[in-house]
Design goal:
This protein is an alpha/beta fold. The protein contains twelve helices and eight strands. Helix content is 43%, strand content 15%. The chain starts with 6 loop residues before the first strand and ends with a helix. Bound molecules: phosphoenolpyruvate (PEP).
């Protein structure tokens, strides 16, 4: 059986003009061509960058992703971008359920369930995010919260569909705050997540599921985080905006 994929994924968020984004993608791509990565690399960009960045990425093991997609298939939804439109740019992945989308754009479990379904139906792999607030962690509710997020939006999927799901545990208190979860805290949660995936889809499927950690992961803490047995890589925000930092995180898999 194949070992589960190790992945380092960047999430640019609302940063970079088109020209800046193309330049950043080129720089990352060049560094990966110069030295083949020991993990899969996914670069998730704003919608406007996708088609152009797709033209730039030709290093082995590097894929393109979006940061969101619509919860409707097509039609009169001004300003929205569908999963089919994302896929048509050459993107292979889409991030769904990011805490910023949940918090600032009111994305509920129901909406995310629709988005996940449409993304998979259109041939995209989903990087599905989950994670608790500081308040919830202090109340020791993190497991409950994460389980509810998974039950609410992805645990209805078939075993076949599940193969295209990557999970990302991102404690909200660690996102963009410089406050990383300790590698033990991250490992503990990822092992828990793997155990509930096993209950739902069986032990083999759980062993094959790639689970990432996200939240202030950077060049100096990546190796320690990735040394843990259940941590299959990282979802990287801030540190994905500098090619050298992002490459250093990828290199943490050496
Ligand atoms: C994220 O938002 O996915 C993230 C992990 O951000 P940062 O690395 O900036 O904390």
């Amino acid at each position: 059986r194949q070992m589960r994929k190790k992945i380092v994924a960047g999430n640019w968020k609302m940063n970079e003009t088109l020209q800046e984004g193309i330049a950043l993608a080129k720089e990352i791509n060049d560094s990966l061509k110069a030295e083949k990565p020991n993990c899969d690399v996914v670069i998730c960009t704003p919608f406007i960058h996708l088609a152009s960045v797709a033209q730039v990425l030709d290093a082995e093991g590097v894929a393109l992703g979006a940061e969101n997609c619509a919860d409707k298939e097509k039609g009169a939804y001004t300003g929205e971008v569908s999963a089919a439109m994302v896929k048509s740019t050459g993107a292979q992945y889409v991030i769904l359920g990011h805490s910023e989308r949940r918090q600032y754009y009111g994305e509920t479990a129901e909406i995310l369930k629709e988005k996940v379904q449409l993304a998979l139906a259109n041939g995209l792999k989903v990087i599905f995010c989950c994670g608790e607030t500081l308040e919830e962690r202090e109340a020791e509710k993190q497991n409950e919260v994460v389980k509810a997020e998974l039950e609410g939006s992805v645990f209805h999927l078939s075993a076949e569909e599940w193969k295209n799901i990557v999970l990302a545990y991102e404690p909200i208190w660690a996102i963009g705050t410089g406050k990383t979860a300790t590698s033990d805290q991250a490992q503990e949660m990822l092992a828990y997540i793997r155990s509930i995936v096993a209950e739902k889809y069986g032990k083999e499927a759980a062993e094959d599921t790639t689970i990432l950690y996200g939240g202030s992961c950077n060049a100096s803490n990546a190796a320690e985080l990735f040394s843990k047995s259940d941590i299959d890589g990282g979802l990287i925000g801030g540190a994905s905006l500098k090619a050298a930092d992002f490459k250093a995180i990828i290199d943490a898999w050496k």
